[in-house]
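Hello,

Following up on my earlier ticket. Below are the two sequence lines again, exactly as submitted.
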Amino acid sequence: MTEPVLSVRDLHVEFASRRGTLRAIDGVSFDIAKGEVLGVVGESGAGKSVTGLSVIGLIDPPGRIAGGEIRLAGLRIDNLPPEEMRRIRGKRIGMIFQDPLTSLNPLYKVGDQIVETIRTHLNLSESAARRRAIDLLAEVGIPAPEKRIDGYPHEFSGGMRQRVVIALAICAEPELIIADEPTTALDVSVQAQIISLIKRLGRDHGTAVMLVTHDMGVIAETSDRVAVMYAGRVAEIGPVQDVVKNPLHPYAKGLMGAIPTLAGEDKRLVQIPGSMPRLSAIPRGCSFNPRCAFAFDRCRIDRPEPLARGAQSVACHLYDDVPAESVA
Amino acid sequence: MLAFTLRRAVQAIGVMFAVGIIAFSMFRFAGDPVNQIVSIDTSAAERAIVRKSLGLDDPVPVQFVRYFADAAQFKFGVSYQFRQPVAALLMERMPATLELAICATVFAMVCGILMGVYSALKRDTVLAKLFQAVSLIGISLPTFLIGILLIYLFAVTLGWLPSFGRGEVVKLGWWTTGLLTLSGLKALIMPSITLGLFQMTLIMRLVRAEMLEVLRTDYIRFARARGLTTRAIHFGHALKNTLIPVITVAGLQFGSVIAFSIITETVFQWPGMGLLFVQAVQNVDIPIMAAYLLMVSLIFVTINLVVDILYTVVDPRLRSTVGRAA
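Thanks for your patience. The regenerated structure is below:
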């Protein structure tokens, strides 16, 4: 097998606070292969965005990467000096943020912002960069790009602005795109367009995509694999059909049960009781145990480690004694 | 854009009209000007002649219209004290005041922005904390005290700089400037610092606060995610966004700098409009006071207008909303 574009191993991220150190990410591991879309789901505060930010090296103090390693196509990037990491950002890793309305500097024309980014990373003349910027705007589906390039961000709609943000993220042909809830701030019809755009770009350029969202529908539609995060850990990871159709972890089961179907059965949606623990009060053992219907003694003492079950991997004691093959 | 400018200009004229009423009413309420001009033993008949020659026996509305029409042509009457046209007196003094105000503002802007940016970017350094402390002093010490302290230190004790006056000036047409001679420049240093110190600390604190605010915004985070250099982010993206409120404050403060140069001019015996005004107050020289009021408000109104227009130049969002509204 070829080397994955992104490989995260046992990542720990901590935030120093007045009341001690908070562990936002506690031993997260995953890989993303070339051209693959990995969906990352979980409730707010599960550590999805922090994982994305640590990959691109934008964890600001008081936060810090406390352990583990991140490799981009084999190159270790979590401990690079700031200037070298800056050269990777935007060139080899592109990032798309949640709110397109605030992601662009309101005082600069969108074209100038794209040209600036292109010229930071690629050795192009002003006019060549501008031509490339027009091509990029066309590629992300902005009509009349040669005219719109001289527009200011406020002259674009939310969906169009997110397209500009995507153009900015891909302008140096990165190997990896981190999309942090790219559709949350958009309305539903625009969401679908943006999702298919990200998917198409990933396919056309062989770009690996890490798609952070709390929208299972978006994941099911876009991703090849999905990681379910809970309280700073990966509860379950696997191919998207398997995890959606046959979730193993009780938390993943709960999440899937909470998706409304169009089939129109009049069943109440299943709700997971309780809420995610605060970072300062993560319970011993499995962090999900207080909310889990299947919890037993061991769950309150030992922390479950990821176990391979078919193509899936699950961190749950329920599967401790079950042989790998017997899981359907 | 043109419609916007015109609308603002009409508003400005309205403001000037209101100020004109106030200036005019000073003549009515600050005592009988005839008494200021004549001596105690002038007869009633002679007083009536003076009254008539000054047009003070006409009905009030007539006097007001005449005053306003004259003021619009920069004719403010004759000073009681100097027996010269007020406009000429003010024009003679204006270069000194404007030069001082401009130097003070440039000093305040340059130092304020530099110190503000520095203390926002290097928040935890000793120098940044020192700037914060200095700015507290600048904001809380009254102008005249700073002036006197500077005179004591640099003029009396060290003898480096002159303690009063403008030094040698060069005439350029009707304008006199102290910027072209060494003694003029030396004389300008202390008054400029005294006058500009408050604005400098204000701008510094504003720039620091705004810059910290802007550095937290999403587009700065996104600019970092795009891999732009720190330099481009700080000085290309953050500073430009920081400067929008700074333009307003600095612009409005320029008006105050001119208006409040009264104190600095008094401390340094600077031969500008402010000093003229103080003398006029002491002598109840109402034409000068009224004209000064009109001049200062004209400057304020003009600056406001310029700031509004500058705003739209810097911020493209305003340009289009203004265009739509107009």
